[in-house]
Design a protein that fits this description.
The complex is a heterodimer of chains A (199) and B (325). Chain A is mainly alpha-helical. Chain A contains seven helices and no strands. In chain B, helix 1 crosses helix 9, helix 1 packs parallel to helix 10 and helix 4 runs antiparallel to helix 5. The chains are: A mainly alpha (199), B mainly alpha (325).
Chain lengths: 199, 325
């Protein structure tokens, strides 16, 4: 339980750090710390596979792209300190949304016993981290993913693929897309230019 | 003895051994490179140059530690530590020899190989943040290159390893070694092994994939502005990563501590060290032999050759395992 409180406070602290920084790269570092702390929280819940996936997918892949884009686009631009203060206008809606969400949480927790799930709902018993065949282990996760939850898994994969195709359609410029013939043509043009220059 | 004390003592021991290995891996690299280029190599400090790492460390300690005026000082200071900690953390789950009581590894984690990948995937932050926070041109270019390169090659690297996981039926590193008692996975997974070696070189930013710090075009790449101890941290992290990928190659493809020719008289740890040394030698050999790749070729090779090959290897392995039942 002590672990939980330490991690919970660290989680909130890193989240606050993330949103209060003026420099976007500082925010990314705060978010990175946040992901790592969240992953550690999963580990204390015996969900080691989720721990690893949280780090590989979110910290190791998605956030790297954040850093990549930020350092590519914002190199040399100032921090977000200029411009009008948008806080007063957003304050009331933000507080409303936060209170509603918090209310639902409290309501949900107050209805059931304070434990998250009654133990008989879990298909396997929680055990030591590092054991196989217990709640949260890789084998257990895999079986659940490819049997009970196969359809949601495939639907998620399909949605993600649609999103990727959408990005290509929206961002891709068909006229500029290089083809094999394009390269050959360009090489010919370059060669002709060199030949002309030599003459 | 309480468990935590046992773990702390083992961690300290592993840290000591790993850092010593780093020092002598560096000396070995300089010596072997020199011999391959018909030079004597470092031979002034101590007999046969054996005290060279100590001299280098002393030099590194006494150098002035500079921070450029344009640098983002918080991130600039943080970045070397991210590299260092992620490089060292991996050794927490690597088993060095056969042990039923968990004597030869700090923690035998069920998802061991996944833990290794999760930590190495964080290593890219050290380099990309260092390049960004230096506040100058060449480090930024170097770090952008490295981020793109590491993301691209990580994919093929992970896919090349999944074949081994399917054959072994476990993600525990000790379990994978046990599955190789009869046959090392380098034989049934030869394609996977080749892809792993190539991508591992790219992941650790070593020649011929060292575009990140290509000195002829980028001065020093991401660590151009770093000096003294902070540069030393990057340097150590790079070598530790090399040792890590060599350990993983040994565990996944060369049967870990399983003896060669049935020579089980020699203890497992000796076999493990010999095999890791062999893989490190291949690394040095590659560096001495091959020229650096061009950047567009590197990316095209990763996405158009290695990734499809790794996918093919994975699907073929899965099909064969499923067919055999």
């Amino acid at each position: 339980m002590t672990f939980f409180w330490v991690l919970a406070i660290a989680l909130i602290a890193t989240a606050v750090f993330t949103v209060t920084q003026r420099s976007p790269v500082h925010s990314v570092v705060g978010l990175l710390a946040n992901f790592v702390v969240l992953a550690t929280l999963y580990l204390t819940l015996n969900a080691e596979f989720i721990f690893v996936m949280q780090i590989i997918v979110y910290a190791g892949a998605i956030l790297v792209l954040f850093v990549f884009v930020i350092s590519l686009l914002s190199a040399g631009t100032g921090p977000f300190s200029e411009g009008p203060n948008r806080m007063p206008r957003a304050l009331v809606p933000a507080a409303l949304v936060a209170l509603t969400g918090f209310g639902f949480l409290i309501y949900g927790l107050a209805r059931g016993p304070l434990g998250i799930l009654p133990p008989h709902v879990a298909t396997s018993h929680p055990g030591e981290v590092g054991q196989s065949g217990v709640f949260g282990s890789v084998a257990d996760f895999g079986v659940a993913l490819f049997s009970t939850h196969l359809l949601p898994f495939e639907i998620t994969a399909f949605i993600l693929m649609v999103a990727v195709i959408g990005v290509v359609v929206l961002a891709g410029d068909a006229a500029l897309a290089p083809t094999r013939g394009h390269h050959v043509r360009r090489r010919t043009q370059e060669r002709e230019a060199i030949v002309k220059a030599e003459r | 003895m309480p468990l935590w004390l046992f773990v702390v003592i083992k961690s300290a021991l592993v840290l000591f051994v790993v850092v010593t290995t780093f020092a002598y891996a560096m000396l070995a690299e300089r010596k072997v490179l020199a011999w391959m280029q018909l030079r004597p190599g470092p031979n002034r400090v101590g007999p046969w140059g054996l005290l060279q790492p100590a001299a280098d460390a002393a030099k590194m300690l006494f150098k002035e530690d500079l921070t450029p005026a344009t640098a983002d000082s918080l991130i600039y200071r943080l970045a070397p530590w991210i590299s260092m900690i992620t490089a060292m953390g991996v050794f927490a789950v690597i088993p060095f020899s056969e042990s039923s009581s968990g004597l030869w590894s700090i923690g035998d984690v069920n998802a061991g190989i996944l833990f290794v990948f999760s930590l190495t995937s964080l290593g890219v932050y050290g380099i990309s943040l260092a390049g960004w926070s230096s506040g100058s041109k060449f480090p930024l270019l170097g770090s952008l290159r490295s981020t793109a390169q590491m993301i691209s090659y990580e994919l093929a690297m992970t896919l090349s390893v999944v074949g081994v996981l399917i054959l072994a039926g476990t993600t525990s590193l000790a379990g994978i070694v046990h599955a190789q008692n009869k046959l090392w996975f380098v034989i049934p997974q030869f394609l996977g092994f080749i892809i792993y070696v190539i991508t591992a070189v790219a992941e650790t930013n070593r020649a011929p994939f060292d575009l990140v710090e290509a000195e002829t075009e980028l001065v020093g790449g991401f660590h151009t502005e770093y000096s003294g101890l902070r540069f030393g941290l990057f340097f150590i992290a790079e070598y530790l990563n090399m040792i890590t990928v060599s350990c993983i190659a040994t565990l996944l493809f060369f049967g870990g501590w399983n003896p060669l020719f049935g020579l089980s008289v020699i203890p497992g740890i000796v076999w493990f060290v010999l095999k890791v040394g062999f893989v490190i030698f291949i690394y040095i050999w590659l560096r001495a032999t091959l020229p650096r790749l061009r950047y567009d070729r590197l990316m095209a090779f990763g996405w158009q050759v290695l990734l499809p090959l790794a996918t093919l290897n994975l699907m073929a392995t899965a099909a064969i395992v499923a067919w055999k039942g």
